[in-house]
């Protein structure tokens, strides 16, 4: 055996023992394993993010649910290889349960007042009402409300429908004007928000008003009432209830209708639609409503256009029906046959003053049409006198 060497004999270097070598080797392997683990982690992160983006692009609305309202049950089931993508097209029961329970809750006094107003306006089926909304700017004399009411009074078989219209008023001035006209009036209140002035299109004020109105409509739906929603700039010239699709639970007018009543390539307009209250439409409206958070800066019509192709809708058994523009027309796509026109909407027309001027032209055309003998009407007035540019 060799005597132990002193540190001075080899310049201070002490030979390492076998266990020292093992420890050094272990540290080396630990360092190597850490680097490999980091790389693996990064790879998995990239794959996970890729899958998440792919999943989100395919099912975007399932990601706009507020995190404090629901933990999306399928987010944790995304496979690192994206193999579960097809299976995720079926909405989960917990999501349906959330959508059914995510209701706008009124206080008892508000709920009682709304129920009373709706009951007074019910049609003979004891379930259907017509709903529109107003603010002070739209109720000024010789403005939009006057034209809206006039359309019912000069329409063909529409005057009696006025007693079934509920006017949701956004401010006290609109509410008072509604009462003065002896209509069915309901105050749509919003704490700390003044909706009395004209809300320029797509401004923050406008968007708040539109989503508050939509919230009100889904409340009516959740209370069990079917309704026809109409903007005040829609002229009612014939009874639309006779021309709705009998099997349509949700049917809506269009800015452009290219492909028939069920083709999702059509461009819907949120200013006129008919909806039946049931579990499917309630889920759909709750789903639609959450879009204001996921698509900031968009109103309800924009969100509908974004979600209409989403598999959630057929997944709950609902099919959107698009109304025929020959019957339910507008300035975007004017219906030319006045013998069959039902409604005329001042869409594709920006600004209250522009709308009022254009709708007065519609009213004048209709009065001339109705003043003629029945057999001469359509041969004499073949189209609307509309402005070439409206706003």
Automatic annotation (TrEMBL):
Signal peptide feature range? none
Describe the location of the Nucleotide-diphospho-sugar transferase domain by residue ranges.
Answer: 161-357
Where does it reside?
A: Golgi apparatus membrane
Q: Does the keyword Signal apply?
A: no
Q: Does the keyword Chaperone apply?
A: no
Q: Where is this region: Disordered?
A: 1-26
Q: State any single GO MF term.
A: glycosyltransferase activity
Question: Which terms does the UniProt entry file under GO BP?
Answer: cell wall organization
Question: Transmembrane ranges?
Answer: 32-55
Recorded hits in Pfam families, A to Z, give: Nucleotid_trans
GO CC list:
Golgi membrane
Topology of this chain in the membrane: Single-pass type II membrane protein
Enzyme Commission number(s): 2.4.2.-
| Family, similarity comment | Belongs to the glycosyltransferase 77 family.
Q: What is the protein name stated in its UniProt record?
A: Glycosyltransferase
Organism name: Perilla frutescens var. hirtella
């Amino acid at each position: 055996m060799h005597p132990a060497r002193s540190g001075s004999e080899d310049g201070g270097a002490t030979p390492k023992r076998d266990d020292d070598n093992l420890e050094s080797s272990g540290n080396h392997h630990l360092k190597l394993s850490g680097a490999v683990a980091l790389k693996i982690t990064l790879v998995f992160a990239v794959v996970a993010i890729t899958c998440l983006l792919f999943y989100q692009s395919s099912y975007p609305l399932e990601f706009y649910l507020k995190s404090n309202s629901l933990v999306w049950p399928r987010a944790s089931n995304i496979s690192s290889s994206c193999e579960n993508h097809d299976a995720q097209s079926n909405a989960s029961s917990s999501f349906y349960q959330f959508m059914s329970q995510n209701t706008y809750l009124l206080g008892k006094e508000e709920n009682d007042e709304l129920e009373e107003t709706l009951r007074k306006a019910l049609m003979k089926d004891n379930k259907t009402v017509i709903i529109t909304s107003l603010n002070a700017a739209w109720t000024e004399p010789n403005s939009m409300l006057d034209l809206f009411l006039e359309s019912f009074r000069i329409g063909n078989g529409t005057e009696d429908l006025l007693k079934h219209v509920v006017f949701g008023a956004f401010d006290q001035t609109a509410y008072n004007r509604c009462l003065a006209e002896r209509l069915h009036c309901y105050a749509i209140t919003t704490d700390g928000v003044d909706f009395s002035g004209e809300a320029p299109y797509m401004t923050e004020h406008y968007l708040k008003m539109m989503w508050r109105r939509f919230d009100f409509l889904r409340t009516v739906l959740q209370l069990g009432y079917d309704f026809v929603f109409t903007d005040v700039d829609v002229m009612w010239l014939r009874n639309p209830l006779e021309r709705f699709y009998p099997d349509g639970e949700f049917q809506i007018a269009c800015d452009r209708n290219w492909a028939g009543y069920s083709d999702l390539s059509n461009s819907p307009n949120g200013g006129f639609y008919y909806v039946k209250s049931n579990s499917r439409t309630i889920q759909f409206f709750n789903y639609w409503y959450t879009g204001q958070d996921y698509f900031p800066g968009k109103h309800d019509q924009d969100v509908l256009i974004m979600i209409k192709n989403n598999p959630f809708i057929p997944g709950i058994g609902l099919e959107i029906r698009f109304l025929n523009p020959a019957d339910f027309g507008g300035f975007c796509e004017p219906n030319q046959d006045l013998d069959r026109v039902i409604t005329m909407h001042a869409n594709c027309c920006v600004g209250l003053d522009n709308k009022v001027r254009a709708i007065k032209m519609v009213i004048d055309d209709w009065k001339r049409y109705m003043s003629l003998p029945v057999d001469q009407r359509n041969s004499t007035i073949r189209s609307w006198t509309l402005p070439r540019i409206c706003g």
